[in-house]
């Protein structure tokens, strides 16, 4: 029987368990997107995860519209990530970082008034906190030129190079949740008439170019990608999600990636649920995510619905989530008011369980 505690080979790595930490933006990179000691401590506390997928991290200043989110496009940011990689490795953990371009979800306030970019000049229905306040109205983005597209592909590849140079184990390409790559993939936004728009293969072109460039730079065994086939975050939509995302994973088969990560909570019976179809079409490891508990995760693994399970909110308040699952200890509930604040409160001050067990890092 495969359980959360069965080891797994994923790309270049042999991982100790299948309890992965999902990427979680926590807004603690308060100094120019540079990862700091607080963040190193937070990630090291969670190093018993089979794999930590660190938070969405910008590949370029123009793709960053989230207050105090980290980047990986300057030497200082790279050094900051090195501290995190070292701290996690010291505790025998593995860590990838999620590479991110927000596209049209970057408010002009972050760009000195300039317009953000997207596949097409389509305004997604969003409002976001910016340096100038809350609920700032969004502008219609600029459609990227072909040159602009190639520049961003290069930025992903450059950030991946920096990730490996910093000692991180790999990268997860953020192709989910309505951000730039998703703005190309899904036809609710993409209205292009060139080779990046129209047919499904054309809409997947940008994603596949990013994947190819990143794999060429750091090797496919250090690369994962995240998809969210059925959510509508930031007003994103697609008219044929089944066809779009099954084709996406079919095309991803050629890369021999470490994994494909699908964010899709199981809906009520009778509603569309694409993960089983993606599992069928994809030949490599599938990481599944969205509302799992120890029980539902173990049964999903045993049914071969995915090969590992990523947990998001449970990791916020339970740094020792793996040990708690192993020993059936109670879980603490995260305080959502401190998700995006800037200090250690509600971040690296969640205690380990009171049960008398040793943390895996001490064994
Ligand atoms: C505070 C918070 C921050 C998040 N940040 C990211 C992120 O940076 N990148 C991403 O792909 N998803 C992000 N997510 C989504 C989570 O990775 C995950 O998909 C979601 O929490 C569902 O998993 P869960 O039910 O185990 O919490 C975030 C979620 C939360 C609650």
Number of strand segments: 14
The chain-level structural class is alpha/beta
Sketch the topology as an H/E string, one letter per element.
Answer: EEEHEHEEEEEHEHHEHEHEHEHH
Assign an overall shape.
Answer: globular
Task: Please outline the major beta sheet.
Answer: 8 strands, parallel, barrel
Topology summary:
Elements: E1 8-10, E2 13-15, E3 19-21, H1 37-45, E4 51-58, H2 75-90, E5 95-100, E6 117-118, E7 127-130, E8 133-137, E9 142-143, H3 146-165, E10 170-174, H4 180-185, H5 200-218, E11 223-227, H6 241-252, E12 259-263, H7 275-281, E13 286-289, H8 294-302, E14 308-311, H9 313-317, H10 321-326
Parallel strand pairs: 3-4, 3-14, 4-5, 5-10, 6-9, 10-11, 11-12, 12-13, 13-14
Antiparallel strand pairs: 1-2, 7-8
The structure holds flavin mononucleotide (FMN).
